[in-house]
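Example 4.3 (complexes with small molecules)
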Amino acid sequence: MTRPLTPLGSNPIRAVDVIRKKRDGQELTSAEIQYVVQACTSGEIPDYQISAWLMAVVLRGLTRAETSALTDSMLRSGEILDLSDLPAAKVDKHSTGGVGDKTSLVLAPLVAAAGLFVPMISGRGLGHTGGTLDKLEAIPGFNVNLPLPQFRRVLDACGCAMIGQTSEIAPADRKLYALRDVTGTVESPYLICASIMSKKLAEGIDALVLDVKTGSGAFMKKEQDAAFLAELMVETGEHMGKKMVALITGMDQPLGLKVGNSLEVEEAVDVLRGGGPEDLKELCIELAGWMLHSGGAADAVEEGKTVSRKLLASGEAFEKFRQMVILQGGDVRAIDEPARLPHSKFKLEVASPKDGFIVAIDCEAMGRASVALGGGREKKEDSVDPAVGIVVHRKLGDQVSGREPLCTIHHNSEARARQAARLLLESYQIASTPPAGEKPPLIRHVIRGAAAK
Ligand code: URA
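Answer. The structure with uracil bound is encoded below.
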């Protein structure tokens, strides 16, 4: 049995003592946290003790020093990519999850087209939110399971590569997340921060831009909760020597007009070709501006945004995306002609029940409608249908007449479509007068780490 973290002559660290200490609200030492993470990863302490410790963390919280120590230990539980020989900065973006959020598909090639490297390791759909890997897999043949050496080769060749988490990256998170999932301990900003940051920092990046969502379709419905998590992640990343910035952005309605895997690839391609819906374009350009600035490719964010607009308009970002698709085994014809992407057999229009204005959207319910169609997973082992999804015709503030379509459902099953239609109808709040007050901006505010200023 290993007790590597005990100074010579002192008592060995015992799981039960660490649990008691956190239960009583005391601050743990880095050595104690490192012990829990190492012993959890190696299977040395049983699941019931790790679970008890996780619950103590949920109830008592962690200090900034404890959060950094937890992130660092989880990061060091696995491989950390060494990309120091690449000739430009390595930057990435992470989103806390939304509905219709396909910005990663645009940002990786866009930022690579500006000369930086984007080693993006992404996740699958979680709950009602979509996942980048599921979207990429809608492109026939696209391989998100490249081993790390091949990931590195794609990155060398085109400046960006997009894969899923491998068993080598932060194995402690895999173990801890599986326990959190079944013990009611996912909802802790400290655990969420360590989980996300340990995986992102393993990419060997210099800078990270966070898109922390708030609103009815976000995990953090309240802006103050989103800001708290954003600050925690920015401070943790900074403490570990990274340039950090977080944008708090609205998720009170889907981003863009399309929700579902193939449909979202189609919309991302529209943006990469210089078109696409305004809100999606705005967020992509804002995030890209920050990525270019954080990575040193632009002196100011505004300059980064100008460069990004040009790279989208000129087709250079789209060309980068094509290169990456080819290098990762995808059928590039499906990108050149999105009609070749998987499409559903049937469509069903969801008509407005009355005349009026859209004053609120339950965006989480919209995400659940997409999952109900088969576009996401109810259970981890479910397979995803890339062809299904929702095209949104009416968004916040829009006027609608009774019987006009609110959305069109793309489906492969009548029963699933009926369930999705119910959820979609319930998700719209329609009133006789337009929404009061100013429309809240998509980008609510920016939290910058000292190094990113
Ligand atoms: N996503 C993660 O990767 N980890 C969490 O804890 C929550 C969301």
